[in-house]
Amino acid sequence: MGSAKQSAQERRVDGLVVFGGSASSALTDKICAYLAIARGRATVSRFPDGETILKIEEDVRGQDCFVVQSTCPPVNDNLMELLIFIDCLRRASAKRITAVIPYYGYARQDRKSEGRTPITAKLVANMITIAGASRVLTMNLHADQIQGFFDIPMDHLTAAPVLAKHFMNRHLSDAVLVSPDVGNIKFGSDFASRIGGELAVIHKRRLSGEKTIAVQIIGDVRGKKVMMFDDMITTAGTVCEAARIVREHGAGPIFVAAAHGVFAGPAVERLIAAELDEIVVTDTIETPSRVTQGLKNLTVLSVADLVGEAIRRIHEHRSVSALFC
After folding, report:
1. Considering its fold, how many domains does the chain have in total?
2. Does 238 reside within a domain?
């Protein structure tokens, strides 16, 4: 990211406009503060029947425009608002439109796991492209192959630098990094390389959309501090089941981190019952008050500077890959 010593004036970027959707209003304000620019003016409202009304309140003709909007719950409403935003900017003659989607919804449906089912992650990619987006910037996709679903340029950021810095500042000795499922080994390996320490993996079996069961653990966690990383916490079934099995194998304190805190359904109740030492997520999704009030051990880190720097580099036609380091 940009040097911490840079002043806001030095980071100021001219010639671009950053808009924020309803789902990412607070994050957009932080991104604009990092870029030292005013937030793009737009009004979002609803018709009595629930249809979204959008009006861009400034001239964007020939401008490099970015729309920040996570497609988090209510997923369909937020996705539709993003599409309308893109279409509105295209019809207002914006030079380039980048959809900044900190949390990409429908990412779990990335393949046909059985007959007569959709690949919704591809459908959403098509919708964003057809609406008029020139490129996409997102973070920690549930499946990396979704990048290939887009026929426009995509930049895929990771929250690993932000999360890793938090735990490095905690100076946790004798720690082991645990991937709560086999599919998340790459994310866990990234943290292991940043923080140091061994990597353990939990093999799980999914019983339903809301329930998973841990079958076995590969690696040694006995007597060690456990740092568990996942791309998202949705119903918390995976991390809570993983916490149970590492405790059965003699683990010490357990710290859980995820890029996206969805916290759907019984997540809060499950996490309280799991008695974790700390739960860390980022602000790719705005955390509801019911979650912050219920989870006293919750820490929310901001990815605004990371996303803001990526936006600046895209605008200036510079490499974004340096931010992966």
Report:
1. 2
2. yes
Q: Phi, psi at residue 127, to the nearest 5°?
A: -65, -45
* Distance separating alpha carbons of residues 291 and 300, to the nearest angstrom: 11
Q: In terms of domains, do 143 and 176 share one?
A: no
Domain match, 229 and 209 both: yes
**Active centre residues (catalytic):** 204
* Alpha-carbon gap, residue 102 to 283, rounded angstroms: 9
Q: What angle do CA 274, 276, 277 make, to 5 degrees?
A: 160
Q: Tell me how crowded residue 37 is: count the other CB atoms within 10 A of its CB.
A: 21
What are the φ/ψ torsions at residue 248 (nearest 5 degrees)? -65, -25
Distance between CA atoms of 281 and 259, rounded to whole angstroms? 5
Q: Per DSSP, which regions of 92-161 are E strands?
A: 96-101, 135-139, 154-157
Report the CATH number that the domain containing residue 266 is assigned in CATH. Answer: 3.40.50.2020
Same domain? 46 vs 186: no
- Is the preceding peptide bond at 74 cis, omega within 30 degrees of 0? yes
Query: Phi and psi (nearest 5°) for 151?
Result: -100, 15
Residue 1 included in any domain = no
Q: For residues 310 and 135, what is the distance between their CA atoms, to the nearest angstrom? A: 13
Both 22 and 107 in a single domain?
yes
Reported pTM: 0.92
> What are the tens digits of pLDDT across the range 6-55?
665 565 677 899 999 999 999 999 999 999 999 999 999 999 999 999 99
Tell me: do 130 and 254 sit in the same domain. no
Q: Which two tokens stand for residue 100?
A: 């900044």
Torsion from C-alpha of 157, 161, 255, 207, nearest 10 degrees? 20
209 lies in which domain range? 160-301
Residue 161 pLDDT: 92
